């Protein structure tokens, strides 16, 4: 089995790559820079003995994306699984962000995911099962003030995944939307989790556990996976409460959390 992993240098992408290698799958890893990919490739090949190919690509650059899929075609690589891990967010409210940050969220989370998914489907092994995992978020379950663009982009991915799964059901294609809570992937993510206090601790997921259970859920043909009992309960509660009330509660939560995040960041910079 050949698995394409985008965002492979990040914490979740790396965890997914390791989990696939542990299962004996060969890998094609991509991210924006070469050096981290090569480090991951060497570690995985040494530990698991699978074949790992890497090619850096800015998924928001049409020329680089075309070159990436030309590389796949020239190498005659047929795909069996696509893990759409690449994603981005910026801390701060809508007006506090430069417009470039706002559009960058849409470009990475939505546009790049759609383009990669469309191109990967055209390069799957014919007449064989193909699996797609798209990383949405627990944030997709609610409209979230102060994270409005990010939450909306993840809602788009959730709806797109569910719709695509039904559309391609009879083409032997399974599509899973992964909706995790917090993930300890970067320094910024860790600061964000810490700033949320107890809610950050309760909704944060272990990377290795998420990777293992996500791949298993995708292989079983599930369409949505929300890691963690607390996160599942929050999803149900969100459906029972009117959106206007949910947004008020979330605004208070994220306003307090971002205030603590800014205080932590300011203290770190002293």
Characterization of this structure:
This protein is an alpha/beta fold and 270 residues long. It has one domain (2-269): NAD(P)-binding Rossmann-like Domain (Rossmann fold), CATH 3.40.50. The chain is built from 10 helices and 7 strands. The chain has a 7-stranded parallel beta sheet, with helices on both faces. Helix 1 (11-22) packs parallel to helix 2 (34-48), helix 4 runs parallel beside helix 5 (148-167) and helix 6 packs across helix 10. The mean pLDDT is 87.
Quick description:
By secondary structure, the protein is an alpha/beta fold.
Order of helices and strands: EHEHEHEHEHEHHHEHH
CATH A-level architecture? 3-Layer(aba) Sandwich
Structural category: alpha/beta
The number of domains is 1
Give the overall average pLDDT: 87
Give the neighbour order of strands across the main sheet: 3-2-1-4-5-6-7
Label the overall shape.
globular
Q: Specify the helix fraction band.
A: 55-70%
Which helices and strands appear, and what pairs or packs with what?
Elements: E1 2-6, H1 11-22, E2 26-30, H2 34-48, E3 52-54, H3 62-74, E4 81-84, H4 99-121, E5 130-135, H5 148-167, E6 173-178, H6 187-195, H7 198-203, H8 207-219, E7 224-225, H9 229-240, H10 243-269
Parallel strand pairs: 1-2, 1-4, 2-3, 4-5, 5-6, 6-7
Helix pairs in contact: 1-2, 1-8, 4-5, 6-10
